[in-house]
């Protein structure tokens, strides 16, 4: 009998168990030596000067905004099709979020529309590398220079991706990654902020640690919180990093397999990667006609797929929030992508037999 195929699962095994046992033997479970090792390895991998681990990337986004010294009611441009934490973290930082439409081909923020949203209060723009795709980096940087905007780079879903051989997440003023359980590598929960600015790094480190640079002191120079990591999380992350190159190769293979097997189907469209990028292929996504029918059909056959994020301008959480702006725009592209978008099974442990099973059923559905 065919086992149920999840849309995404982490690659967890004996290596992770071994690293976790090492932490338990130390009896020091909170943020300590293993967390520092994890920071150093991430820093080295993405070629950033500073890396600061956090309890999750939502906290990270909040800290990024605060570390840029953005003031209450300053405006930040945020893509309308993204995960809700991109908006909620900015609201938590007392900013006003200006929702902006995205491009259909690679899900990046639409700068032609963004320029119409610029006001005297616009101080930052958020890049989101949705589903591991690469946003229009050079255009955003040029746009930011023109309007004197800070860049927050949300690479939550894009750890391992590059643009012109530079790591996604390191191309703005500050950025970072999520290591939630469904990401390409995971620490269970957790995230990390990266930057090349000493000042920004110190502000984030103090924000996550009660307003102090180091533990063990009870003198706090600024207001801060407890957004700390744990060595248990770090242990899993260190084991994951050892196998990450293999995970990336498998992710690329999965994406290529889907494109090759399904590319001829007229009712399906794939994204168009930026020519200068190497996406991480966190999820392989399609825009499909009769999306709901396809989704139900696959589920009955034991295959889980996931729809795209619900657009921010339609979220009940933000509809009546006066600090979320531009909600009345029609957002045709965001709505179209939500209505047609599906994330196909993308786990690194998918077998060739399972990939053939998934693609053959999709082909059968559209015959």
Number of helices: 13
- CATH topology-level fold name of the largest domain: Aspartate Aminotransferase, domain 2
| Content of β-strand | 15-25%
Strand ordering within the main sheet: 1-9-8-5-4-2-3-14
CATH class of the largest domain: Alpha Beta
> What is the element string, with H for helices and E for strands?
HHEHEHEHEHEEEEEHHHEEEHEHEHEH
Rounded Rg: 21 Å
Largest β sheet strand count, sense and barrel closure: 8 strands, mixed
Q: In angstroms, what separates the terminal alpha carbons?
A: 25 Å
The assigned CATH architecture of the largest domain is 3-Layer(aba) Sandwich
Mean pLDDT across every amino acid position: 97
Can you offer a commentary on this structure?
It contains 13 helices and 15 strands. The two termini are 25 Å apart. The longest helix has 19 residues. The protein is 38% helix and 16% strand. It has 367 residues and is of the alpha/beta class. The strands form three sheets. Strands 1-9-8-5-4-2-3-14 form an eight-stranded mixed sheet, with helices on both faces. The chain has a four-stranded antiparallel sheet with strand order 10-12-15-13.
């Amino acid at each position: 009998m065919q086992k149920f195929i999840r849309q995404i699962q982490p690659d967890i095994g004996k290596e992770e168990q071994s690293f976790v046992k090492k932490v338990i033997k130390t009896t020091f479970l909170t943020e300590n030596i293993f967390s520092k090792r994890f920071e150093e390895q991430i820093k080295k991998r993405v070629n950033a000067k500073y890396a600061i681990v956090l309890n999750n990337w939502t906290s990270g986004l909040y800290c990024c905004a605060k570390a840029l010294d953005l003031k209450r009611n300053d405006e930040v441009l945020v893509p309308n099709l993204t995960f809700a934490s991109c908006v909620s973290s900015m609201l938590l930082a007392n900013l006003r979020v200006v929702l902006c439409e995205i491009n259909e081909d690679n899900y990046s923020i639409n700068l032609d529309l963004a320029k119409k949203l610029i006001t005297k209060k616009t101080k930052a723009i958020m890049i989101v590398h949705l589903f591991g795709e690469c946003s229009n980096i050079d255009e955003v940087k040029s746009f930011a220079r023109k309007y004197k905007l800070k860049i927050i780079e949300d690479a939550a879903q894009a750890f391992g991706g590059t643009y012109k051989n530079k790591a996604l997440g390191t191309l703005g003023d500050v950025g970072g990654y999520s290591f939630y359980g469904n990401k390409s590598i995971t620490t269970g929960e957790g995230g990390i902020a990266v930057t090349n600015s000493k000042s920004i790094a110190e502000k984030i480190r103090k924000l996550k640690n009660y307003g102090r640079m180091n533990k063990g002191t009870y003198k706090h120079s600024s207001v801060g919180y407890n957004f700390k990591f744990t060595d248990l999380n770090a242990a899993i992350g260190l084991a994951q990093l050892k196998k990450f190159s293999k995970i990336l190769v498998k992710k690329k293979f999965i994406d290529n397999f889907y494109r090759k097997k399904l590319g001829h189907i007229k009712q399906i469209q794939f994204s168009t990667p930026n020519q200068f990028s190497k996406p991480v292929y966190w999820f392989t996504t399609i825009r499909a006609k009769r999306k709901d029918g396809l989704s139900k059909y696959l589920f009955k056959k034991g295959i889980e797929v996931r729809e795209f994020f619900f657009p921010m301008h339609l979220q009940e959480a933000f509809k009546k929030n006066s600090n979320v702006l531009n909600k009345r725009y029609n957002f045709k592209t965001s709505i179209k992508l939500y209505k047609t978008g599906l994330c196909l099974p993308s786990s690194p442990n998918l077998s060739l037999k399972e990939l053939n099973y998934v693609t053959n059923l999709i082909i059968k559905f559209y015959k």
